[in-house]
Design brief:
alpha+beta; FAD/NAD(P)-binding domain; D-Amino Acid Oxidase, Chain A, domain 2; Rieske Iron-sulfur Protein; 3 domains; 10 helices; binds flavin-adenine dinucleotide
């Protein structure tokens, strides 16, 4: 499933891998976090290499709905319910600085950007009090929001908040501009090189599928960290969600960017003459039929825009921390050589930029007030309880999928086109699928931490319900914390 932006990607120049070369900073991951950090380091005269496992923007950034906004649905309520008021204020200031950075960057580098009002709205009468609470918090952190009886959408709403003059972008065009600037500053961009390990020596040694690099510092900007140190994959949950674009009559295009306060999430924006809708998220690998989520989002859109004609449908995943504030900084046992950023809660267009600003300040400068506050976050008991709840859920998925695999005998005939099945095998459960008339047999055991993968009927992929690793039907790693593929097995 290709995103609207990836369907016609901008040209991005990359470099041939240079084995055994040395850099001041090696950035792992070519999404918004990695590329903003790379440019900021290069502007300070540091030698920089970006190492990307697939292509620039092939991760979540290239599939984002890419609203750049200080008003973020009910994010202030989420942060506030899990942290102290100072954290909420610091989160709002981080978003604000990051927002300004993106707007200035887009303006200075001719990246197309559409300014729109952002709305948080209630789609049900029960949602109205949540709108009120978010309005109160948004005011408290200093945003000039207005409370409206309704959002300007073609269906009934039950109250809304508006923040004027926010923005929507094509995220790949932003990444292309960052890559171009990085090149003018002497930085290197290596695509199709997967980092498989980092040694926290002096200098640090980065092992990739193309050879080794050395660096003074290594930044893991990989969505969720790929190293076991710090166990960050147990501190964030991986959430998959959906987006679609539609042709609609010009006079039915909504004027603004919208997000409801309820579940399922309904996100609305435009992109030129197209309507974009999104939402319907769930834990990665934990949904019986992701395709049903896709169909349901299409049905919701065509119910409210009856003349809508689908042009693109895609999905992507992002990571949430229990306290809804990103983890940014040095990696435990990384000896001050390895840094990470994760847990953007689907607000990475600002949180990713705030993370990059923080990491560059951590390494080369001094932290701003909001950076210091977010670094010194104190964990509240209810955050710990949420974390324990998520890890209990992970344990439940291990037990459930092992029990299901061991009690299922795989049929002797291959699965029908587009289907995948997991069943008993020796020495471990086996996953079989048929995609494009090709039947593949792979180990069903995720190489990250040995959970059993489940079939994603929308993406035709194997997804891990424990920590969010994903693999194509033939077992090739797509994303998530693992650095390895599923073991390929012979067809009997
Ligand atoms: C459907 C959806 C809609 C969203 N909409 C919005 C929105 O409207 N506004 C907003 O602010 N945020 C939004 N978000 C969130 C935002 O898009 C993300 O938080 C952000 O793009 C994450 O950026 P990143 O750079 O951290 O990760 P990514 O963009 O995922 O980049 C990480 C990169 O690391 C690479 N990588 C991974 N492992 C390795 C390895 N071992 N070696 C080398 N490279 C590796 C990957 O291939 C990838 O390219 C949305 C998220 C989703 C899922």
């Amino acid at each position: 499933m290709t995103s609207l932006w990836q369907a016609e990607p901008p040209v991005i120049h990359t470099d041939a891998f240079e084995p055994d070369s040395s850099f001041d900073e090696v950035i792992v991951g070519g999404g918004i976090t990695g590329l903003v950090a790379a440019v900021l380091f290069a502007r300070q005269g540091r030698s920089v290499a970006v190492v990307e496992a697939r292509t620039i923007g092939s991760g979540t950034t290239g599939s984002s709905t890419a609203k750049v906004s200080r008003l973020q649905g009910t994010q202030f309520s989420r942060v506030s319910s899990h942290g102290y008021p100072a954290i909420l204020q610091a989160y709002a200031e981080a978003s604000s600085d990051a927002f300004d950075w993106v707007i200035d960057y887009a303006t200075d580098h001719a990246v197309p950007i559409e300014r729109r009002d952002a709305y948080t709205y209630a789609g049900t009468p029960e949602g109205t009090s949540r709108v009120d609470h978010e309005y109160h918090l948004a005011r408290k952190v200093g945003l000039d929001v207005q409370r409206l009886p309704e959002a300007p959408l073609p269906f009934r709403t039950h109250g809304a908040i508006r923040l004027a003059d926010q923005a929507q972008i094509d995220p790949l065009r932003l990444l292309a501009a960052l890559c171009a600037e990085l090149h003018t500053l002497g930085g290197k961009i290596f695509e199709y090189s997967r980092v498989t390990g980092v040694k926290a020596s002096s200098p640090a040694v980065v092992t990739t599928t193309d050879g080794k690099l050395s660096a003074e510092h290594v930044i893991l900007a990989t969505g969720t960290p790929i190293l076991y140190r710090g166990l960050y994959f147990t501190k964030v949950s991986a959430q998959r969600s959906y987006a679609q674009s539609f042709e609609v009559p010009a006079d039915s295009l909504p004027d603004g960017m919208f997000l409801n306060v309820e579940t399922p999430t309904r996100s609305v924006r435009t992109a030129g003459s197209l309507l974009l809708t999104g939402g319907n998220g769930h834990g990665v690998g934990r949904e019986a039929s992701p395709q049903a989520r896709v169909d349901e989002l299409t049905a919701w859109t065509t119910k409210h825009w009856p003349e809508a004609h689908l042009t693109h449908a895609w999905s992507a995943q992002d990571y949430s921390a229990a306290h809804h504030v990103p983890f940014v900084g040095w990696l435990p046992r990384g000896r001050g050589k390895i840094f990470l950023a994760t847990g953007y809660d689907k607000w990475g267009m600002t949180n990713g930029v705030a993370a990059a600003l923080t990491l560059v300040a951590d390494i080369l400068g001094s932290n701003t007030h909001w950076q210091k506050t977010l670094h010194h976050r104190i964990t509240l008991p209810r955050v710990i309880a949420t974390g324990i709840g998520e890890n209990a859920a992970v344990a439940w998925w291990y037990a459930r999928e092992y029990a299901s695999a061991l009690s299922t005998r795989l049929p002797s005939t291959p699965p029908a086109e587009g289907e995948g099945q997991v069943g008993r095998g020796w020495p471990a459960p086996v996953a079989v699928s048929t995609v494009g008339s090709v039947t593949c047999r792979v180990s069903a055991v995720c190489p990250h931490l040995a959970a059993i993968v489940t079939w994603n009927d929308a993406e035709k992929s194997w997804d891990c319900p424990a920590h969010g690793s994903r693999f194509s039907a033939d077992g090739t790693r797509l994303e998530g914390p693992t650095t390895r593929d599923l073991t390929r097995l012979a067809i009997p």
